């Protein structure tokens, strides 16, 4: 069985390095599903969950925000501004961040930076989705 070499790194450290039979990445234009032999591609990434399926079927979930993904026929490299394992995310903190960003967007004053508030809301929602996906996968075992 052909496998992909997968590396996910943040600006601070390597988060994941290993082999996989399938990788799902939140590309800037939509979800990217990558199998061995994929056509070369370079894309921006948006906040979301990277799902890495190992040869034995086990799955690893990572949260990423910002950066790029480079796809080659035998390799996937994610260079993310922020990257962490889904189990490292704090659900309560992500909920508070989502609520705070949503509240800012509801204000109709000119004193807020809407683009920043929208980005913060997108990141908080993506973190919560990563947590839910990881928990759902653990419950199905």
From TrEMBL:
> Which InterPro entries does the record match to this protein?
ATP_F1_dsu/esu_C_sf, ATP_synth_F1_dsu/esu, ATP_synth_F1_dsu/esu_N, ATP_synth_F1_esu_C, ATPsynth_dsu/esu_N
User: Where found?
Assistant: Cell membrane
Q: Name one GO cellular component term.
A: plasma membrane
Q: Which keywords does this Swiss-Prot/TrEMBL entry list?
A: ATP synthesis, Cell membrane, CF(1), Coiled coil, Hydrogen ion transport, Ion transport, Membrane, Transport
Residues annotated as domain ATP synthase epsilon subunit C-terminal? 87-131
Q: Which residues form the ATP synthase F1 complex delta/epsilon subunit N-terminal domain?
A: 4-83
Where does the record place a coiled coil?
A: 114-141
Q: Does the keyword Transmembrane apply?
A: no
State the Gene Ontology terms under molecular function: ATP binding; proton-transporting ATP synthase activity, rotational mechanism
* Topological type in the membrane: Peripheral membrane protein
Q: Which family does it belong to?
A: Belongs to the ATPase epsilon chain family.
Question: What the protein does?
Answer: Produces ATP from ADP in the presence of a proton gradient across the membrane.
Q: Which NCBIfam families match?
A: ATP_synt_epsi (TIGR01216), PRK00571.1-4 (NF001847), PRK13442.1 (NF009977)
Subunit structure, briefly? Answer: F-type ATPases have 2 components, CF(1) - the catalytic core - and CF(0) - the membrane proton channel. CF(1) has five subunits: alpha(3), beta(3), gamma(1), delta(1), epsilon(1). CF(0) has three main subunits: a, b and c.
Kindly provide the name given to this protein in its UniProt entry.
ATP synthase epsilon chain
Origin species: Pandoraea faecigallinarum
């Amino acid at each position: 069985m052909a496998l992909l070499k997968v590396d996910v790194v943040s600006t601070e450290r390597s988060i994941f390095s290993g082999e996989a039979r399938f990788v799902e990445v939140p590309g800037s234009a939509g979800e990217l599903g990558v199998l061995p032999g994929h056509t070369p591609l370079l894309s921006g990434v948006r906040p979301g969950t990277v799902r890495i399926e190992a040869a034995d079927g086990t799955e690893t979930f990572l949260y990423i925000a910002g950066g790029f993904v480079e796809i080659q026929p035998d390799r996937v490299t994610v260079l993310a501004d922020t990257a962490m394992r889904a189990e490292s995310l704090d659900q309560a903190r992500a909920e508070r961040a989502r609520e705070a960003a949503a509240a800012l967007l509801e204000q109709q004053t000119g004193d807020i930076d809407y683009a920043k508030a929208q980005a913060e809301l997108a990141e908080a929602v993506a973190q919560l989705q990563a947590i839910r996906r990881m928990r759902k996968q653990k419950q199905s075992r």
